[in-house]
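We were asked to recover a plausible sequence for a given structure. The inputs and outputs are reproduced exactly as logged, with field labels preserved.

PROBLEM: sequence recovery
POSITIONS: 265
GIVEN STRUCTURE:
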């Protein structure tokens, strides 16, 4: 699914072509950013699964001082990763949104042309990565969507499905965008999008963080391409979702709606 914007209101920047500086053999230099907090049960297997699908992808783990030794596992894996694995260690649990912002800045500073957000718990299937990397060659924003044809969820109860669907519908209605999955976190971004949307102004966390990034990209005129994914419940560990995160999303969309800014914000 390709989101086509109103050309007069938000002129769409659809196609961008790699330059020698940010591409290797014509393929965009891409980084997968994986925030972690107590993901020792998942992280090593996930790294293997990512490289099984895309052997040349580089990965940045942003670890919030996990008490279960996640950071130590990543550093041990670096020894055999041939320079493809990086880690940023933060002082404590500082939130998903700020973890991604740190990862985005690191990617821009280190010459990456595209960045993919990915959960550490296997809820985002690594088998989707080849498709996402390929689509980023042509589209500035690629969204892994549960709510387009072929997408869906597994092992969710009816209440969680209701919250997720209603959350996306609520945000779409208030913000006036036609992205089917506004709250999803398996997304790919070209560097020109991250440079233009104003990362220093992004304040949200959780669901609201994903909504805000997509809304800012749409306001800047970037076309958003949705590909189907099936979101699976985590394999191990516990969910970081909370009522506070849901409440933030409910309130934050109104703040975003009320922002009257130029297309550069």
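RECOVERED SEQUENCE:
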């Amino acid at each position: 699914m390709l989101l086509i914007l109103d050309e007069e209101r938000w002129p769409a920047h659809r196609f961008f072509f790699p330059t020698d500086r940010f591409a290797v053999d014509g393929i965009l230099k891409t980084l997968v950013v994986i925030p972690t907090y107590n993901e020792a049960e998942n992280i090593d297997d996930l790294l293997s699964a990512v490289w099984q699908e895309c052997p040349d992808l580089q990965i940045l783990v942003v670890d919030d001082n996990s008490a279960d030794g996640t950071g130590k596992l990543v550093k041990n894996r670096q020894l055999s990763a041939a320079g493809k694995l990086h880690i940023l260690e933060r002082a404590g649990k500082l939130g998903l949104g700020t973890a991604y912002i740190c990862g985005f800045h690191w990617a821009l500073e280190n010459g990456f042309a595209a960045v993919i957000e990915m959960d550490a718990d296997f809820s985002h299937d690594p088998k989707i990565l080849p498709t996402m990397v390929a689509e980023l060659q042509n589209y500035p924003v690629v969204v892994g969507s549960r709510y387009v044809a072929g997408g869906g969820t597994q092992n969710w109860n009816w209440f969680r499905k209701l919250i997720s669907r209603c959350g996306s519908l609520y945000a779409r209605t208030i913000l006036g965008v036609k992205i089917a999955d506004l709250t999803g976190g398996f997304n790919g971004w070209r560097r020109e999008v991250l440079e233009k949307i104003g990362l220093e102004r992004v304040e949200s966390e959780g669901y609201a963080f994903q909504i805000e990034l997509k809304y800012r990209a749409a306001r800047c005129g970037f076309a958003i391409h949705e590909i189907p994914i099936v979101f699976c419940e985590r394999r191990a560990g516990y969910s970081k979702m909370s009522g506070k995160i849901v409440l933030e999303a409910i309130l934050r969309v109104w703040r975003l709606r009320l922002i009257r800014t130029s297309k550069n914000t």
